[in-house]
Amino acid sequence: MADRFIADRFGESVEPVQFLGRGEWSVCFSFCEHRTQEQGTEKVIRFGDHLEDFEKDRRAGSFAHPSLPIPAVTEIGEAFGGHYAISQRVLGSPINDLSHQGWLAILPDLFAAVDEVRCVDLSPTTGFGIWDAHGDAPYQSWHEFLVSAGDDARGRRTDGWRERLGDSPTGDGPFFEALRALEQLAAGCPEIRSLVHSDLLQSNVLVDHGKITGLLDWGCSLYGDFLYDHAWLAFWAPWFGATRGIDFAAETKAHFGALGLDDEFERRMRCCQIHIGLDAQAYSAFTGRWSDLAAVAGRTLALVRS
Prior knowledge:
The protein folds into two domains: 2-88, Phosphorylase Kinase, domain 1, CATH 3.30.200.150; 93-305, Alpha-Beta Complex (Aminoglycoside 3'-phosphotransferase, Chain: A, domain 2), CATH 3.90.1200. It is built from ten helices and eleven strands. It has helices at residues 2-10, 51-60, 100-118, 142-147, 161-167, 173-186, 227-236, 248-259, 265-287, 290-305; strands at residues 18-22, 26-34, 40-48, 73-79, 82-88, 93-94, 129-130, 194-196, 205-208, 211-215, 222-224.
């Protein structure tokens, strides 16, 4: 169906459509639009149900910087009862494909990209937490967003996760133990409001020849403590063989210590990691991925009890 849609939209001159991958909320294809007989333009088209994700990607394109490569979304529309988005194609391999040595080599470039994310001007926007297509977020403070981790509000994509969590083989005991710890930690965290990507793994970060070539998929992006992106790497490191043995917390502390931005570092890093673990438990319960739920619950409790 993607082939037919692209041919109808751009004409029969496009090269054969290639399937690139499927994420949690969309499916992705590449194609080449021939503007002249000699030259083509490589593009990516994604299909999904959630228009806001594509609108956020379009807004994120305005954040692009030489150290922060974000492909521009050039078109958004309706397709197959949902929506599509077309953007420039960025070449590179997913960061998770790197070897251990490759990860160590890419960290300075990755940290530089995340620094650019941290420095994006948010003055035209409001709020904390996950922002919408207009650039605004719903919470009045970072603390309010963090302690909302146990909320299961109707109308959200993951509506119903708390009931599924309670009925799961893991149960909700580990979740609420970690939530109580988070509430105590969050009370002492400073109110920092920066842009956060909040999904810096898998195919969302592309790498080519030792350089970051693309930061993709801003659907989970939020406003809050800039350590959150670094906590994301630290929390998920045990899941990937190439990142085991890399102390992301220590690397991050050294990086921000040199910049004089490591105030309340341990509390903030631990708080962010616990929040990431709670959010992952909620999502695993929603999707019914019980083995993932057990693993992230165990990881979260280890952080709580350490």
